[in-house]
Amino acid sequence: MRPQTTFHVITLFPEALASYLNASIIGRARKEGKIRVELYNPRDFVLPARGEHSEKEQTGYKRVDKRPYGGGPGMVLEAGPILAAVERARGRKKNVRVVFFSAGGKQFTSGQAKTLAQKSRHIILIAGHYEGVDARVQKILKAEEISIGPYVLTGGELPALVVIDAVSRHIFGVLGKRESLEEERVASSAVYTRPEVLLHKGKRYRVPKILLSGHHKKIEEWKKKH
């Protein structure tokens, strides 16, 4: 079975994504071939500069960051290895979307996730780190800048997982028929299960009576209000 969507993640820390990608719904979707996730480490695309062999490079460590021009704290990821990794991911594929994570990017929404699922066969996610990625990468690739929220993270691995999860939910068969319909049908964020009466520290917490009524129309109205 050919996957409907393949996610290509450019990351220095592929091990940071592994546990989530192999677990629960996303892990099952991968095993069943409904989605595919490929990881590319920029370190694998480093070409040592002539005459520049540091002690780390001589021991097999491949450096991908340098000090920023103009000064400033931290290190910046070099453009070369990132561009080479993206080029490998892109290959000769068609219908490829390149995403660049930025705190100043467009806010990522469920609607955008649905659009990506429907219109993109291949999604390349660039997970930056340290003080960021050389700005020329985004310019060269014309990558779409998105943000998962109004805050700054230490790396792009979590945003990449957020996008993979959110997009995968809109891919046919990943959630299953019942769950797929549920996302459109359930408007309430308040959900309940058994027991009907929960005893906790001497207090009784009951399930709202309307949910026990069996009156589907009224239940749906209640959910919309909550």
Q: What is the N-to-C order of secondary-structure elements (H for helix, E for strand)?
A: EHHEHEEHEHEHEHHEEH
Give the DSSP E fraction (strand runs of 2 or more residues): 15-25%
Cα distance, first to last residue?
40 Å
Helix- and strand-based class?
alpha/beta
Helix content: 25-40%
Largest sheet: 5 strands, parallel
Low-confidence stretches: none
What gyration radius follows from the Cα positions, in whole Å?
22 Å
Beta strands, count: 9
Question: Could you characterize what this model shows?
Answer:
The protein has a five-stranded parallel sheet, with helices on both faces. Helices cover 35% and strands 20% of the residues. By secondary structure, it is an alpha/beta fold. The mean pLDDT is 86. Helix 5 packs across helix 7. Strand 5 (96-107), helix 5 and strand 6 form a beta-alpha-beta unit.
What is this entry, summarized?
By secondary structure, this protein is α/β, with parallel strands linked by helices. It is built from nine helices and nine strands.
Topology:
Layout: E1 5-10, H1 15-21, H2 24-31, E2 35-40, H3 55-58, E3 65-66, E4 76-77, H4 79-90, E5 96-107, H5 110-119, E6 122-126, H6 136-141, E7 144-147, H7 157-168, H8 177-185, E8 197-200, E9 203-206, H9 216-225
Parallel strand pairs: 1-2, 1-6, 5-6, 5-7
Antiparallel strand pairs: 3-4, 8-9
Helix pairs in contact: 5-7
Distinctive features:
five-stranded parallel beta sheet, two-stranded antiparallel sheet, alpha/beta, elongated, 9 strands, 226 residues
